[in-house]
Design goal:
alpha+beta, three-stranded antiparallel β-sheet, elongated
Length: 216
């Protein structure tokens, strides 16, 4: 068995195990690249001690990894179905497929199931955990391109409506004109050599422009 360290990356698909402190496995999984570190939400989270993550087999095809995953789960047994089972896996393995494309009907059903589910507000602890988990990570080129498309779509929807709402008398600047060379307020800067003031006309003893700054 090959103990997995963070600097290493198994070749191809692989089958991995999370170990208890006594050395027995409590979860068997199949993955590729850094799939091993994506902890589950149930009771079989990723061990904080990386030496308790073991690569059982590596450099496999996806079908081979599925077959070995099922074999290991069957060998050790599941706690929820086998009397003497020691694994917390909820399935017999071999489920899922890397790079699979969901049908439109499946995507629509998933969206419908998420409607009405609150996404926040999050607690301070949750916000801190989310921030810590994302720190140092970079979005892929595909993710950035997708984000740009979404933002462009939102701008295309909102801006025409905003422009229409601000047309004519609804615009706060409707019918108003700005005085030339006096800025948007109609005021200009004047100074007496010591201090500067803004005024519509030049006060007595002042000249146009700001007072020079004193060098420190």
């Amino acid at each position: 068995m090959n103990i997995y360290y963070y600097s290493m990356c198994p070749a191809g698909f692989y089958v991995y195990a999370y170990l208890r402190k006594n050395g027995t496995p409590y979860y068997i999984g199949k993955g590729k690249n850094k799939r091993w570190k994506h902890g589950k939400k149930e009771s079989f989270q990723t061990p904080k001690d990386l030496t308790r993550i073991v690569i059982l087999e590596s450099n496999l095809t996806e079908l081979g990894a599925f077959a070995l995953e099922r074999r290991y789960i069957r060998w050790y047994g599941r706690e929820d179905t086998d009397k003497n089972g020691i694994l917390k896996n909820k399935t017999d393995g071999g489920d899922g497929a890397a790079g699979s494309i969901q049908s439109d009907a499946a995507n629509q059903a998933r969206r419908a199931a998420q409607i009405g589910i609150p996404k926040g507000p999050y607690s301070q602890e949750r916000k801190y955990a989310m921030s810590k988990g994302r720190k140092g990570s970079k979005m892929s080129k595909e993710g950035l391109e997708s984000l740009r498309k979404v933002r462009a779509l939102k701008r295309g929807i909102k801006r025409p409506e905003h422009s229409k709402a601000m047309t004519g008398i609804n615009n706060p600047m409707y019918g108003k004109s700005r005085e030339k060379n006096k800025g948007s307020t109609g005021l200009k800067w004047y100074n007496n050599g010591v201090e500067s003031v803004m005024a519509a006309t030049c006060p007595d003893g002042y000249t146009i422009g700001r007072a020079p700054r004193k060098k420190i």
